[in-house]
């Protein structure tokens, strides 16, 4: 799950704001090159030398911005996630019936998760979780777990409006809903090279998930 305020860099942060003299434009150019290499070749096969060579500079310059390959990868991951985060979160608003709001959010979520860049990132993180200490749990906590909390807040508001059962645990309900969104074509997508499931398949998965969710947690007022 991808939502705003996701920062994967933690102690490895190399923001230009904390490095005097660092050019943000130069940093962004380095991230763009590093993103392409990491997502094409994976973490293990991408070297700082290769990134520097493609940029057209020296490793020393690259290290000025990113002190290690790990820091560079974490910056790439954070940058990529934030690129998608705002758009997805913007869809989680009350501007119609509960089921329609959840359907819109689910479609945008799955469209983002099955996009080539996010798919590649997920595969790299999964493959390198053991090689980069703390990467897997950090990615989980700042990604999926943050998404659960954001959805739980939305469902708490729905509960206050009488649209979600009064006895429901909204955090658990959020986990169930997001899990159902990701339980169909998304799982097949991650394990295959067949490309995105497509809008029609995503819509069917989302509609089925929202229908099951509303039957389990909704009230008559939400019908």
Automatic annotation (TrEMBL):
User: What protein does this entry describe?
Assistant: TetR family transcriptional regulator
Against InterPro entries, the record matches this protein to: Homeodomain-like_sf, HTH-type_TetR-like_transc_reg, HTH_TetR, Tet_transcr_reg_TetR-rel_C_sf, TetR_C_Proteobacteria
Task: Specify whether DNA-binding is a keyword of the entry.
Answer: yes
Write down the DNA-binding region ranges: 47-66
- Which SUPFAM superfamilies does the record associate with it? Homeodomain-like (SSF46689), Tetracyclin repressor-like, C-terminal domain (SSF48498)
- In its UniProt entry, the species of origin is given as Alteraurantiacibacter buctensis
Molecular function terms from GO: DNA-binding transcription factor activity; transcription cis-regulatory region binding
Q: Which residues form a coiled coil?
A: none
